[in-house]
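Case study 2.
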Amino acid sequence: MKTRSQEPIRVGVLFSETGVTSVVENSERMGTLLAVQEINEAGGINGRELQIVSYDPESRPARFAALAEKLILEDRVHIILGC
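Prediction:
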């Protein structure tokens, strides 16, 4: 069993993959995924891997709010990156 200091850092990612804003958000999403990959390849943060939990808010503000709440309460992420 991993100790708390060895557990991955859970990162919530909320960028639309569908809908009207997905055209803009796709580049932001790809940049976020690249940054996480590079951080993990360099050994993570203090030796802790970043673990992505990602959802598609479908360019709908109400869905962003609902998914942000889900990421915090159910998925127990440490941070949310997105719009």
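DSSP finds two helices and three strands in the chain.
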